[in-house]
Amino acid sequence: CPHCGRFHEGPFKQLKADYIDTGLINFVYREVYFDRFGLWASAIARCAGPEKFFGITDLLYAGQSTWTRAGGGDPSAIVEELRKIGRLAGLGNDAIEACLQDGDNLRTLVAWYQENAAEDGITSTPSFVIDGRTYNNMSYDEMRGLIDDASS
Predict the structure, then answer these.
(1) pTM of this prediction?
(2) What's the average model confidence in pLDDT over 138-152?
C-alpha cells in the first residue's frame, strides 16, 4: 500500500538506524495482503531467500507507483512489472515463474497473514505492535515515544 511505501522510505530508515541496527528492539516485518498484487509482490520478494528479501522489498517500494498502475491496473501488466523487479534483483525467469506459480506457498502466505492479522487486530496498514498493543500508522516521533516508554 502507498502508506507502507511512505513508512518504508522514511520512518523505517530512522527506526532501523536508531533501534533495529543497535539491537534495542526486535523488529518483525509481516506482510498484509489486500489483493493478489500484494501477494505476488511478496512472492517475488521471498523468491530469492531471506538474505535478499529486504533488498527486493526496497525495489518493490521504490517502484510501487509504477508496478501497481501498470497497464491501468491490468493484472498481466502488473505481474510483468513484478517479474522485471525480480530480474533486476538477479532472479532468473524460471525461478520467478516457480515462485508465482507455487500455489501451496501462496496459500500458506495468505493463511499466515490472516492468522497474524487476527491475533494482532490488524485492520489497516501500516500497523505496529509495540509492547503487545497494536497501533495504526503514526509519525516516527510518536513511535519513538511509545518504544522508549515500553523499554523504560
Answers:
(1) 0.88
(2) 93
